[in-house]
């Protein structure tokens, strides 16, 4: 940043925040983004840059200080006593190396990570009482989400009952696979309706429906990756995923526990190449410290956990296709 004065930074930050808030509203609340993610990310990172240089300009309501997403007032609200957070992201392997160095410094020794695919959908929380699904909710603003229990009853891979009478909460990603997305958009196009910009928006627009019968007609799936309150025998993320899989949750089985950065980079290269051939959309790779007690001690910032990071893929070249079609509203 070339020698910006405080006054200049202030002048730039105002319109920047306004623009980002507008885009975030279209993306999170209306499920109809106005720009590509990389355009949003670039502006967002510029705001982070300005706020880092001039911390006195950070306000509590800045988009960098809160989890994106609002709650549609027509939904019943659900409080998340343990907030559903966002995730820090990086765009290069060099930044991942810096993340690992930061973690090692904080923890005092090298750590292993569970390396997972970053599924392109929206977060969902599932609560069970005595082994029965009692509530499903969206992330909303992180502290309060929307009740989508009726909708979740129509998602085939969500267990309505567990094989054990557990009272527990799990979280994961609700997504629409590529085939279901193409079919839905083809049908909508044939009927002269607006089409969804991408599978993420189609998933969000299909789950966040007041009339759950609409969700029933859409082909949604889940990958469950977080156990909010696991039993004591679970000590790491990889083990948690295995155990949730055993309980009947749909989990993504590609995750690997890795401690060497070269192996992590090889995982990234493998899925960067395989990305297009997967049946579901991914927008990056997530590294999570594979030790729940270390996770606990590292804790969170106001917006993101300190123990995980997303490496975001560069934008897909074919994405321009969405410019030719009318995005759904
Ligand atoms: P995010 O979507 O980048 O990352 C956090 C989310 O990743 C979690 O909440 C979870 O739902 C998801 N996730 C997927 N796989 C996961 C896994 N294996 N483990 C843990 N979590 C996993 O963060 P965000 O704050 O929700 O949104 C920011 C993103 O939204 C950016 O990529 C930005 O480009 C995009 N966005 C775009 C626009 C736009 O106008 N195009 C506007 C706002 C935000």
From TrEMBL:
Binding-site residues for NAD(+), renumbered to this chain: 37-41, 86-87, 116, 139, 173, 288, 312
Domain of life: Bacteria
Active-site feature positions: 118
Function of the protein: DNA ligase that catalyzes the formation of phosphodiester linkages between 5'-phosphoryl and 3'-hydroxyl groups in double-stranded DNA using NAD as a coenzyme and as the energy source for the reaction. It is essential for DNA replication and repair of damaged DNA.
Similarity-based family: Belongs to the NAD-dependent DNA ligase family. LigA subfamily.
Name by which UniProt lists this protein: DNA ligase
Source organism of this protein record: Lactobacillus acetotolerans
Whole-protein residues included: 1 to 329 of 668
